[in-house]
Amino acid sequence: MMFFRKRLRERTRRTKQQWKQRGKQAFRIALMLALLGALTVLFPTQQQYEYSAFREGAIAPDEVIASESFPVYKSEEAYQDEVAEARLQILPVLRYDSTVQQSKLNAYKTFLNDIKKHTGSGVSESLSQELRLSHPEISPLSESTLKHLIPVSRRRSASRSTLTTAVEKILQSTYQNGIIDREINTVEEGYAEVILLNNGSERQISLEELADIENFTSELQQTIEQQLPKASAMEMRAGSELILAYLSPNIAYDATETQRRRDEAASNVSRTKPGTVLKGERIIDKHDRVTSDDIDKLRSLAEHINQRRQQDPFIDLIQRGAGLSLCALTLIIFFAFLKFYRPDLYRPSKNIVLFGIIILIPTAVADYAAQSQAISPFLIPVALSAMLATVLFDAVIGMVITLVVTTLCASILGELQYGIIFLTTGIIGAFSVHQVRHRRDFYRPGLYLIAAYALTITSTVGLLFSYTNTTEFLTEIREDLFWGILSACGSLILTIGLLPVFESVFNVVTSMTLLELADLNRPLLRNLAIRAPGTFSHSINMANISEEAAVAIGADPLLARVGCYYHDIGKMRRPHYFIENQHGVNPHDELQPQISALILISHVRDGIELAKEEGLPPAIIDLIPQHHGTSEMTSFKHQAQLIDEQAVRDADFHYPGPKPQTKEAGIINLADAVESATRSLPNNDPDEIRELVHTIVKGRYDAGELDECDLTLRDLTRIQEAFLPVLQASHHHRVPYPWQVQQQERQIASG
To answer: pTM for the whole thing?
Structure first.
């Protein structure tokens, strides 16, 4: 029965592991498909066809034959010039308002009727105020004029009637001829003639035929004299003030109608030139000088082709499918490279997200540059992705990322020149930062990157042959060099700024962070040196041999060294229970073997807790349990077997693991055992050290402790050879001092 239960539990465990693995694989595939979808969306559809190699004044690189008949469109500049000219040909429109004359004359007659009612009463202050309130138009009239207009007797009333009748005639005549608003002179300058609309009819007249109030006022005196030849000065003054009081412009500028007519004229301007280019007609021959007419024809042909493409419903599907295929092939190659050559980077799902962000940053900028043309393509930060990938991982990954991003960005832009520049600057950016150990080391790569942009831009522009002389060449590269140098500086600044973010979010450890952690004056390491000096010394020796082994097999020597510094920090909580920190008294002599084993195992858990409190990166924390793996504490197990062999459980004397997962963890696992074991050797015999190292490495290999890391048999051989010189140097002999020789001689003599 127990056998079947055990089988059932084992099957259940395997089923859970399988489902967990399938879920993880499905999640990874979903991330890759999301990245593929994002990249595909960034690829432009309906990309415009153009003859960009032809420039006015240059020599045509190829012959161009019309593939179809098409009209020739005017250049945008010429078209806008014709539109502006068509607008200028439309005269300003003025509108005659007949209601002004009627309302003003009615108000004038009402005023005259009111003053007749007060004939003979004279003008008092109250009457003046009453009249001004009732007739706002007379507010400009002086008091003397108002008194003159109100007759004091019937006889004088007749003379006033003659004046008011003349004023009415002048107003009627002036309104019939029209008074324009002075606004027309400020809104529409430069026009001598206008269109006048009056009751549905219109006529073109000269502006000189129309008077404004200012011009009318200057001639008013003469006009009154013609109507009243024998008028007195007072009558002249009163008539003048009265006419101006009831005179208002009745011809106004009609901005809406003017704009409508000009818009209509602009819309009637044709966008095409006279004539049509026929199918098969030569547009330009090779080696001919390109003229403005040739440019118009080439642009018209490209526009005609683009219009035909838009009418085809399958063009969009073809272009979208092409973008999807290119993105899929690029990602398949990239992730296949990681899977077969860098499985340590391929396995973590977080790296898919990280690589996706690194790839998407320049690709998104390339899409924006291609669609809007608001920024220069030289600002696409391919070098940024290359440098980030190199510092976060290594130069090989940086170069592969450069190839991937260059392929995508150059395809989006559709120009080989940019592909060459992206590839060159990306690779130089990757290799220039591959040995960066401090943040201050970025200055030299910045200079390399600026030089790379300058040289590649100058070279590619020079090979385009789109210039006719040195001045044109310098003019063309001036702006490109500016954007290229700006891109180099911006990529460098963004790399420095984004590195801490990526390190924190994706738990990636760079050499800069490792160097900061390698500082032996950090509080955690200082506490280790004070509280557990033997452990600290052991860690330093381990770091020396691990670093040499990592160099020998191509692993990360800095990660191996720093991992050794922190692998035993958990021993600080109970340092006297570990033999390297003991001074003659061993507390395990008073404990049961199981308790002793439990205390030793606990230093792994304590180390992980201390590392998390210190904020150490996961790459360092993972090395703490892996440096022991699932190895067995044979001495305590043997003691327990001597006491009661039946009560011994293997699990009580094994570290919980996991086994080493990386090359660096495997090196530290071996270095920990080798460094401890060599201290038990009485002599510094190279053969004994070699034999001991071989035995320990073979034992760990046979026990399966190295099954889950990427160490090969060749790597293990190289690791052993790298261990030996450092171990022999740390156990070297010294020539005895004279007092030591004398002491030995006295001991021999007394014995």
So the answer is: 0.64
